[in-house]
Each structure stands twice: as structure tokens, then as C-alpha cells.
Amino acid sequence: MLKILLWNINKKNLHQEIQDLVIIHQINVLIIIEFGEFEDVILNNLRSHNADFRIIPKIIFNKAKIFTSINELKIDEVYGHGRYGLYHLQHNLFQDLMMGVVHFPSKVNWGNSDDHSGLCSSLREDVEIKELELNHSRTFILGDFNMNPFENGLISANGLNNTSSREIAKIGQRKVLEKPFKYFYNPMWNFFGEFSKGNVSGTHYFDTYKYINLHWNIYDQIIIRPELLDVFDENNLDIIHEINGKSLLKTINLTSRIDKKISDHLPLKFNINLTNV
User: Fold this and answer.
1) CA 277 – CA 265 distance, rounded (Å)
2) Sign of the dihedral through C-alpha 144, 9, 273, 232
């Protein structure tokens, strides 16, 4: 079983919080975005709990760090880009997978949504090339998209072609002007709204005086090809809002938001039930 944790730590020294999450949720694949100068500190702290933890060497994509404690799990970068990496995951106890890790630019730096849509199109093309080379579509992508699930780049057919419906995703693809586009299922839609899944309505909070103000955004996401739906543990997917009883939120003007003294993003965790690894 792959027990995966994703967290954009905003270059904060959160090695103890990370270790606590790894222990509490028995994480064996850890992905840290905006790790700052703390990668060695994080690794040393993880090894104090489990000596098997190691860092996957970076090749091209250097916006995230991948740690794993699974000895026989090979994680090789098969394509690197300034904003995402694609990785071939191999283990002798399960079929190989492809994992994408992304860190798209913030809207502060890239205000034009067309630029984010362009990144999504580029990612889709690269994923499809590598799926052909690997001869399978057992692909999942996670990371900080700096986009909400409903934005054009994520839902457009020539972007990442996400759907919020498992039933629709299982169809496999849809056609636009007779050209087929494969689906990704995006379970993060389920966290929107007051009575949604989980205890918070997003992974990033941003308050603005502009006319459009969503407050809660779901920028940190996991999207899954239909081929992995049967092994993706939807019940275990969660946005984490507290660690050992310590809240990652604070209250201002009677509303909860992320405590930026810790980070400006909340962690995300999920399981892929491939085996008892």
C-alpha cells in the first residue's frame, strides 16, 4: 500500500510536524513542496523514526522533494520540466505506475489563467507520450496546481480533462471534434462547501477585496486515471487541519483560515491500495 502525504510547507522548518504526520498516518511516500533549505533536516528527522527513509534524487524538476521508506520501490524521473516531473514507480509486488508531481506558479506571479491552461495542456501531452512508452495508463498526478478544480486548464479536454464523477471517468475518454481525450478523475471537488467531505473547505485560504473572492481554494490536488480507481482509497483521502491536537488554522473575524505562521497550505493525504507494502 502506498500511503502518500503532500505538503507545501512554504519554506518553513516544519520537520517535527512532518515527522508527526508520517508517524500518525504511517506515511511511506512523502512529497514536500517549497522545502527551502530544510531537505536534509527533514530527512534526518524522518530517519530518526525510520532508518529506511531516503530522498529520490532530483534530475530536472526541482520544485518538490520526494521521500520514501519503501526499500524496494524504484522511483525514476522519466520526464522533467521546470514546473512538473513524471516518475516511473516500480516494485516487485505490484504493477508499475506513473506519478506526476506539479508545482505551478502562483497567480500572483502568473495572473493570466491562460498561462496555467497552457501548462495543463503541456502536462497532458507529456503524460500521454510517457503512457505510450510505458504501455499503460496507471497514472496519478498530485501537487500544488495553484488552480481550483473547476478552472479551465483542469476541466478542458485539451487540458487535463478532469471530471468530478467516478462514473463518467470510468467511461475512459470523451471526444471533441472526433478527437479522443482521456479522463482524469478529480476527487478534490468533494471538499467544496460547508457540508462537504472533511473538516475544511480547501487547502489554501486567500482573502481579497476584489469583486471575486472565493476565500477557500483547493490548489493541492490528486487526480487519477480511471485505471487506478479501484485501488484509490477515497475514504482515506483527507485535507489535514491539525497535528497531534495542534490546529493548523486560526480564527479571524469569526472565520477559520490557515495559520500562515505554520504554512500557507494544508497537507493532503491519501492511500493507493496496491499491496501490503
Assistant:
1) 29
2) negative
